[in-house]
Amino acid sequence: TPEKVNFLETHARGLICAPITQERAEELDLPMMVTNNTSVHATPFTVSVDLLTHGCTTGISAYDRAQTILALTRHDTAPEDFGRPGHVFPLRAMNKGVLRRAGHTEATVDFARL
To answer: Which residue range(s) make up the domain with 31?
Structure first.
């Protein structure tokens, strides 16, 4: 919800990320942000996105980011529904979750599957 995104912006700070499965990233044609990830934790960023529909405007508002995150989970969302780059940063979880990579991305996807 916009309220939850606003809470994240106010209290957590930093980037708004949205962990997704490898399969979902492929369905939405979300390539990795870089081909050679040299970050300390190898955080698996895809290209960032903004939803172009559902009343979204600039992509930066709490409403726009909440709608973008929801769209990443909806089965009727297509790759062309997103503008790139954007203000939401999908993270591509490894298959087999934390058994493959002990990261917050995989832990979040594993937890969501429960």
So the answer is: 2-113
